[in-house]
Design goal:
The chain has 117 residues and is of the alpha+beta class. The chain has one domain: GTP cyclohydrolase I, C-terminal domain/NADPH-dependent 7-cyano-7-deazaguanine reductase, N-terminal domain (GTP Cyclohydrolase I, domain 2, 2-Layer Sandwich). It contains 2 helices and 6 strands; from the N terminus they run ββββααββ. The strands form 2 sheets. The chain has a 4-stranded antiparallel β-sheet, with helices on one face. Strands 1-4 form a two-stranded antiparallel sheet. A hairpin with a 6-residue loop joins strand 2 and strand 3.
């Protein structure tokens, strides 16, 4: 696997598909560009999911999130796209993505999106 940004989320077989359990992931290294100013926006991204047959491989998730660094995108769009791509790859029972963005112009933004089969 390369160490370059990638829009591909790699999955691996879930060793316990018979059991419902929750996986929680967090990164404080998410960056995207503000489409209005071109300035970087920073966020902590939280992903929680209940896997079905597949797990998302963590290095691919890191490289996927890294791919947003040079993209101009609104907070709401980033978080919804992350959820859509995650669900398309992993096909989980449930998934939730939270983007907790740093204060910009005195306003703190937190975007939460969920998916349920």
């Amino acid at each position: 696997m390369l160490n370059q940004p990638s829009k591909t989320l790699v999955t691996v077989p879930n060793p316990h598909p018979d059991r419902r359990y929750t996986v929680e992931m967090e990164t404080q290294e998410f960056t995207t560009l503000c489409p209005m100013t071109g300035q970087p926006d920073f966020a902590t991204i939280y992903i929680q999911y209940e896997p079905d047959q597949k797990l998302v491989e963590l290095k691919s998730l890191k490289l996927y999130l890294w791919s947003y660094r040079n993209e101009a995108s609104y907070h709401e769009d980033c978080v919804n796209r992350i959820l859509n791509d995650f669900v398309a790859a992993a096909e989980p029972h449930y998934a939730k993505v939270v983007g907790d963005f740093t204060i910009r112009g005195g306003i703190h933004t937190k975007v939460t999106v969920e998916y349920r089969k």
